[in-house]
Design brief:
The protein has 4 domains: about 70 residues; about 160 residues, Nucleotidyltransferase, domain 5, CATH 3.30.420; about 120 residues, Endonuclease III, domain 1, CATH 1.10.340; about 200 residues, Ribonuclease H-like superfamily/Ribonuclease H (Nucleotidyltransferase, domain 5). Helices cover about 35% and strands about 15% of the residues. The protein is built from 23 helices and 16 strands. A 5-stranded mixed β-sheet has the order 3-2-1-4-5. It has a 5-stranded mixed β-sheet with strand order 14-13-12-15-16. It has a two-stranded antiparallel sheet with strand order 6-7. The longest helix has 22 residues. The protein starts with 10 loop residues before the first helix and ends with a helix. The N terminus is likely disordered. GO terms for molecular function: nucleic acid binding.
């Protein structure tokens, strides 16, 4: 095993500037699992890191500075062509020594493991077993940390080699030129920060502090794998044979040095914690771990209850001088007995009992939680002067901040309502409290929750917190959510004929019946609504029956005043839900018999919406509702004469045609665009003629009656 002993001549690769992909392929193609050529190959890994840091793509040529390093790396590879390494490191089965050297620099950190074996009384043989070099991370790391990384790398490699060797290892020695690392290894790892502590703990598991020794940097062979490649890298190099002092007796090795321990910045900071006991300090659970105010309150009450049970109970045992059983010598000595002594009562055996939460514990827990919330929000010292409470008149009562109002003299009002407790709405306890009120009052509206909260608490920013609580409430999300509306379709071409006169494309619909007075009898009349699909104007006609002739007469009257339509839309009768059977049958018969044929003679194209799709007739159904709303103001249960009803229909038509088609964007605009602008050139109609009273409704003058009926509508 080892790197390729006869690598190919790299002149063909040096002929041009390589790309990132080619450099990576060439560097990674070298196979050196034992790290024997680490001083040369580490430059290739550093080159890949530099190219990666430049941010170029895989097929882009490398930068000029990287090209210089690339050529130098290819030149250094030629030194490996004639390199021959003897892999036999032990000529006898006697035990030997493992010597591990570690070093680090800003470029890389490395280790080298050597086998030292005694051949005769004064001769030693040193052979390189394995080496390893790694580039430093992209993120800057201090040199002491890199030296520690190198020491950990050497520890792992020495342990792996020792486990694989069949020859007994008599001694292990680890060499480093870092005085900081030597000081760390001889110190308790728990005194350092996690980065250093974790690595020192692993080193401590495999080595002993006395196995680590210091070596000068000039005699450290691991330093060759952290610098530039040596110019004379052959089998006689120090990297393969180890430092010269390993050939000598141990007495001539580098002497241990005593280093002055100085702060390295990796030690943990020591804090002196002084505890002070206050009378108001109470243990409270972490409110962030609770999702309900009731649970937090009960948990706090249980903690208080547990503390009371853990405290030793004291009882007063009075010794009376009057009882001879307690003091038999009292009559002779007349000695005074101690008044009372305190005895700690200890139960003979532990008992188990379920103690329910009583109101005193709950009230005490609530007071502790509210006091904790105020202390965290407004501070423990002078909370009345907190900037958030600058505009509020607050007072401190029984350890709680309360808002002082002007109703202190009111009777039969709870004291908590007179002076509510002040809380910050951003605190978690206040949010849990608002959530409790929101759920307790059946997820009611904001005003209800706000009214109930302010009976006892004055929470800053209450309205916004209630709104946010309702938004986060899962119940409100489920039961108050609205379905997602489907995307609206395109308008038909008849709705977009803006260059043609009104009512060129129209729609017709019936509504009613409405009762009118004819002589002494009541008869039914139906309203016929024509709407322009382009301008959204309406035209009203009164039909005496539901026959096809009556419908066509209404169409002729509309055409005489508005012009003959080219296209007419209507439903097919199935959408008249709630209408009488006669109206449905008449519309269906009219569609099937006379209306279509006669409309064709008038050069009118009649279109019907599909059955069971009333949404397609929304263009006229919505206007029918507007007309009905306008008529409901005047008609109600009255039975006007036919002429009065006709007048009311026309006035309702005028009101509907006076509605704005678009909203006014600016307040200085005189009026909005209405359908009347397309029909009569202006929005409003003629003013009312005369002034009439409600008594005129019973008169015989139809004009006065119609005017009185229509006055509320126009108002």
């Amino acid at each position: 095993m080892g790197f390729r002993t006869h690598p190919r001549d790299p002149k063909d690769v040096e002929a041009r500037t390589p790309t990132k992909r080619e450099v990576t392929s060439a560097v990674m193609s070298t196979f050196d699992p034992m790290g024997l050529a680490s001083p040369v190959l580490i430059e290739g890994k550093a080159l890949i890191q530099s190219i990666w840091r430049s941010g170029i793509d895989w097929d882009d040529v490398i930068l000029e500075k990287d090209e210089v390093a690339w050529k130098r790396y290819m030149e250094n590879l030629r030194m490996l062509q004639g390199l021959r390494i003897a892999r036999c490191f032990s000529y006898c089965n006697t035990e030997g020594e493992l010597h591990t050297f570690t070093d680090a620099s800003e470029k890389a950190y490395a280790c080298a493991v050597y086998w030292r074996q005694k051949t005769d009384e004064s001769t030693y043989r040193v052979t390189l077993l394995a080496g390893k070099a790694r580039v430093t991370p992209l993120r800057p790391v201090s040199i002491p940390r890199l030296e520690l990384q190198a020491a950990l790398l050497g520890t792992r490699m020495a342990q792996a080699i020792a486990n694989e060797l069949d020859i007994a290892v008599g001694r292990r020695t680890y060499w480093t030129d870092s005085s900081t690392v030597l000081t760390w290894i001889k110190t308790d790892p728990r005194t350092f920060k996690p980065f250093v502590a974790h690595r020192l703990a692993e080193i401590e598991e495999s080595t002993k502090p006395q196995e680590w020794r210091w070596v000068p940097g000039s005699q450290n062979p691991a330093d060759d794998a952290t610098r530039e490649a040596p110019a004379d890298f052959d089998h006689t190099h120090r990297w393969f044979n180890g430092p010269e002092f390993l050939m000598w007796d141990e007495s001539r090795w580098p002497k241990p040095r005593t280093f002055k321990q100085e702060p390295s910045g990796e030690e943990k900071e020591a804090y002196l914690v002084a505890t002070a006991r206050t009378a108001d300090a109470q243990p409270t659970p972490d409110p962030h771990r609770f999702s309900s105010w009731v649970r937090l309150l009960r948990a706090t009450a249980r903690v208080l209850q547990f503390i009371e049970l853990c405290r030793p109970r004291k009882e007063s045992a009075c010794v009376s001088r009057q009882l001879e059983q307690q003091d038999p010598t009292w009559r002779t000595t007349r000695a005074k007995q101690p008044r009372s002594t305190w005895k700690i009562r200890t139960p003979e055996a532990p008992t188990e009992a379920w103690l329910p939460l009583d109101p005193p514990h709950l009230k005490k827990a609530e007071k502790i939680l509210l006091r904790s919330s105020q202390g965290e929000s407004f501070g423990e010292k002078d909370p009345e002067r907190h900037p958030k409470l600058r505009r509020l008149d607050v007072v401190m009562e029984d350890g709680l901040l309360r808002l002082r109002g002007r109703i202190d003299a009111a009777q039969y009002i709870d004291a908590g309502c007179k002076r509510p407790i002040v809380l910050d709405g951003k605190h978690v306890i206040a949010r849990l409290l608002i959530k409790h009120y929101h759920e307790a009052f059946q997820h009611g509206n904001h005003a209800t929750v706000m009214n109930e909260v302010r009976q006892r608490y004055w929470i800053l920013g209450l309205r916004s917190i209630i709104r946010a609580t309702a938004v986060r409430c899962q119940w409100c999300k489920v039961y108050r959510s609205t379905p997602r509306l489907p995307p609206t379709g395109d308008l038909p071409i008849e709705r977009l004929r803006h260059g043609e006169p009104p009512f060129t494309c129209a729609a017709v619909d019936y509504f009613g019946p409405m009762t009118v007075t004819v002589g002494r009898r009541h008869e039914k009349r139906w309203g016929v609504l024509f709407t322009c699909l382009t301008t959204r104007a309406v035209h009203m006609e009164l039909a005496a029956s539901l026959t096809a002739d009556s419908m066509l007469l209404a169409l002729r009257r509309m055409a005489a005043r508005r012009g003959m339509p080219k296209v007419i839309y209507s439903d097919n009768g199935t959408n008249f839900v709630g209408a009488n059977k006669e109206l449905k049958q008449a519309i269906e018969n009219a569609r099937e018999a006379d209306v279509v044929s006669r409309a064709a003679q008038m050069n009118i194209k009649w279109k019907f919406i599909p059955p069971g799709a009333p949404n397609m007739g929304g263009a006229w159904e919505r206007l029918v509702r507007s007309v009905k709303t306008a008529l409901a103001v005047t008609l109600k249960e009255r039975h006007p004469r036919e002429e009065v009803l006709h007048t009311l229909l026309l006035e309702a038509e005028h009101v509907v045609n006076s509605r704005p088609l678009v909203a006014r964007e600016e307040s200085w605009e005189s009026e909005a665009l209405t359908p009347n602008h397309f029909l009569i050139g202006r929005s409003c109609g003629a003013p009312s003629i005369g002034d009439y009273r409600d008594e005129d409704l019973t008169g015989k003058k139809n004009m006065e009656s119609g005017e009185a009926y229509g006055r509320p509508l126009l108002e």
